[in-house]
Amino acid sequence: MTTSTRAEPRLGHTYADALPELVTDWRAEEPLDPGLVVLNEPLAASLGLDPAWLRGEEGVRFLLGAHVPDGARPVAQVYAGHQFGGYSPRLGDGRALLLGEITTEDGALRDLHLKGSGRTPYARGGDGRAVLGPMLREHVVSEAMHALGIPTTRSLAVVATGRPVVREDGTLPGAVLARVARSHLRVGTFQYARALDDPALLRRLAEQAIARHHPAAAQSDAPALALFEAVRNAQARLVAQWMGVGFVHGVLNTDNVTISGESIDYGPCAFLDAADPGAVFSSIDHQGRYAWGNQPAVTGWNLARLAESLLPLIAEDAGVDTDGAVELATASLSRFATSYAAAWHDVLRAKLGLPAGLSDDALAPLGEDLMALVRGGEGGPPVDHTGFFRDLSAAARGDVAPARDRVLDVAAFDEWVATWRALDPDADAMDRANPVHVPRNHLVEEALEAATAGDLDPLRRLLEAVTSPYEVGDVDARYREPAPASFGAYTTYCGT
Ligand SMILES: Nc1ncnc2c1ncn2[C@@H]1O[C@H](COP(=O)(O)OP(=O)(O)OP(=O)(O)O)[C@@H](O)[C@H]1O
Ligand SMILES: [Mg+2]
Q1: Where does ATP bind (predicted)?
Q2: pLDDT average, residue stretch 13-23
Q3: Cα-flanking dihedrals φ and ψ of residue 17, to 5°?
Q4: What is the CB neighbour count within 10 angstroms for residue 204?
Q5: 115 belongs to an annotated ligand binding site
């Protein structure tokens, strides 16, 4: 095979063909002076893309949407969404394009999507652009999540456009993020389709979602409800994993909740240092709706919006009226709490090095007592989430001091450790479940600031650390420390 035949990627457009009502054919904005900032070579290779070609002039233009391979059909996808509880009937890719789908070796589809590629018909008041710093943040955090074993969209590349982008805090360099996802189907996509009041379209959308993400639901007598349950369980597992690593998504609007169960949209996200359930970083989340400890509950709320959207199909499948469908959906939604508890217990069992056979009933009180210690409460301030859990593996090996030194209520801690160690925790397994390196906020900011000023070294070092999250390796110790007090309170921003 010659390089040139390998080079030109072949992109499908299954989604655009199946759901023409939910897309608009569109082209990316011409870049001014494109420059590849970061390329994810292993991901490129796993998708059958040629990294050498991607680095070349044509490849970089491809990553910006300016070079469209033969047969590709770039589209902007429409979706709706509840944003902070308020419904927006028409959001959609305002600054993004779905370039198309790549078929992996095992026959699965992967969306290739560009964020920051210019205004689309869904741009509303926006300029269609994205800023280099936030796109690099999405690159770092999504690759960290992937390395942590958490389902996520991936970042293939970040390309500078050479266009200055005007934001509140000044003029900043523009960039496009090339993102890979199992799909970009969101709860908001279903809300949009439901509002069109066209059951046949809603059915086609559900069939797409089932075929791409939850194929077992196709075998069910009640496929729409089976789809809902599959999404419910995938979201329960996802949020439990976020809670386990101290991840705060920051903007869990229904348009940022995927049907696949992958994390998406790393706009205002953050990782905790102090494990405070009320931790909020986003500048606009005044009520703490998307606080760390509120994520399971708000995911339940978002799933209720999905269930509502599916009601006509649930009714049709079961041969019942709307009231009957509401009853079925409500019963299914009410099992989210159980589903989440089971997922959280799986996360906790792994973090505590306890055997899979340990029952939830035995685990639950242990977990509650531990989380009370971690939160601090009356016994003191919250502890550093990542550092504390990692120190617990030393405790499993008999060196209790590092974890003990982190908590104020040492008597409660000692009692807890004695109960836990009696269960014979596996310290090596804990080292594979409790990261040493997460993209801590101060490190992310430092790397983005340097990258914006043209120095990519801190970004590379951070990427190296967070893509080997479980290995201490020879990574500088500062990559595993919480932010110094001088870093102050951290604030993140949406839509930059
Ligand atoms: N600069 C912009 N120009 C046009 N539309 C924008 C812009 N920024 C955000 N939007 C639109 O506003 C909505 C909310 O944006 P948000 O900050 O959640 O990020 P996003 O662009 O949606 O990315 P994602 O695809 O990761 O969800 C989306 O419909 C988005 O397309
Ligand atoms: Mg979004």
Answers
A1: 92, 94-95, 115, 127-128, 179, 186, 265
A2: 98
A3: -70, -40
A4: 17
A5: yes
Q: What is the reported pTM?
A: 0.97
Predicted complex ipTM:
0.98
**Mean predicted confidence (pLDDT) in 446-458:** 97
**Atom 24 (ligand 1): residue with closest C-alpha?**
265
Task: Dump pLDDT digits (tens) for 138-183.
Answer: 999 999 999 999 999 999 999 999 999 999 889 999 999 999 999 9
**Burial of 42 per CB tally in 10 Å (0-12, 13-18, 19+):** exposed
Mean pLDDT of 414-436: 98
Sequence spans of domains, the chain: 3-181, 185-440+481-496
Catalytic residues: 255
Rounded to the nearest angstrom, the distance between the alpha carbon of 216 and the centre of ligand 1 is: 32
